[in-house]
Design goal:
By secondary structure, this protein is α+β, with helices and mostly antiparallel strands. It has four helices and eleven strands. The chain has a domain of 77 residues: Sandwich (Immunoglobulin-like). The strands form three sheets. It has a five-stranded mixed β-sheet with strand order 3-11-10-5-8. The radius of gyration is 20 Å and the shape is globular. The chain starts with 25 loop residues before the first strand and ends in a 13-residue tail after the last helix. Bound molecules: copper (II) ion.
């Protein structure tokens, strides 16, 4: 996970590690719900580390609907490493599960993922596998690591994200896909569908004249319409 205190003011060409990220990517909200309209998501938006090589991390492969796919019933271990310029801590929250916190540690400034892998390979990280605390949100220290485990027995799409609002809004999140579509109940007939939507300038003007911002927001919620932020660059 990466973060930087000046991430609100970089030029887009130096975004790498200047926006809140997981695995070098900032999560881009998909144009339609992953759970009910997976087939409508452009495949190139569903970024995966295999698609985004080390070299690509330096170009536009930054914003994407990144995911980790796991099998239904698989025991999942995630090693969360705080590797960023700011040294900030990240309160990471998972949806759909509680997890066991099996290890946690604080390391010197400038610690990298590779350092943590090496530490583990040398046997210097001990996992508590009995009576480990059960949580759905846990702090990952800047320049530190937190290791969590859970059994992926709840099929679907679940978000893992920082609970700091500015960090989730700017992309410190990843979707965890558990199982296949066939593991889920079918989407009900006539279930509402939606996609990207932006108001026209005319609609904007009318809204400003006729409604307060709160009224406008309530109207959008009732309509079930979710707008994707138009100012974020998309992968091309
Ligand atoms: Cu959450």
């Amino acid at each position: 996970m990466y973060d930087h205190s000046d991430y609100s003011n970089p030029s887009w060409s130096v975004l790498k590690r200047y926006t809140p990220q997981i695995n070098y990517h900032s999560f881009q909200t998909p144009p339609s719900p992953l759970l009910t309209q997976f087939g409508d998501i452009p495949v190139e938006d569903l970024c995966h580390r295999i698609l985004c090589s080390q070299e690509q991390q330096n170009c536009l492969c930054i914003w994407c609907t990144q995911r980790i796919k796991v099998d239904l019933g698989q025991v999942v271990e995630l090693v969360l490493v705080g590797e960023d310029f700011s040294g900030d801590d990240h309160p990471m929250n998972i949806h759909g599960y509680s997890f066991r916190v099996v290890a946690m540690g604080k390391l010197p400034r400038g610690t990298t993922v590779e350092d943590v892998i090496q530490l583990d390979q040398q046997g210097n990280i001990t996992r508590k596998l009995e009576h480990a605390v059960l949580k759905d949100t846990v702090q990952v220290q800047g320049d530190g690591y937190t290791i969590i485990r859970f059994t992926a027995d709840n099929p679907g799409w679940w978000l893992l994200h920082s609970n700091k609002i500015v960090q989730i809004d700017d992309g410190m999140a990843i979707a965890i896909q558990v199982g296949e579509s066939s593991d889920l109940p079918p989407v009900p007939e006539n279930f509402p569908r939606c996609g990207s939507w932006s108001p026209s300038s005319d609609e904007n003007e009318n809204e400003n004249e006729d409604e307060s911002e709160e009224e406008s927001n309530n109207k959008q919620r009732k309509d079930g319409v979710v707008a994707v932020r138009p100012d974020k660059p998309r992968r091309s």
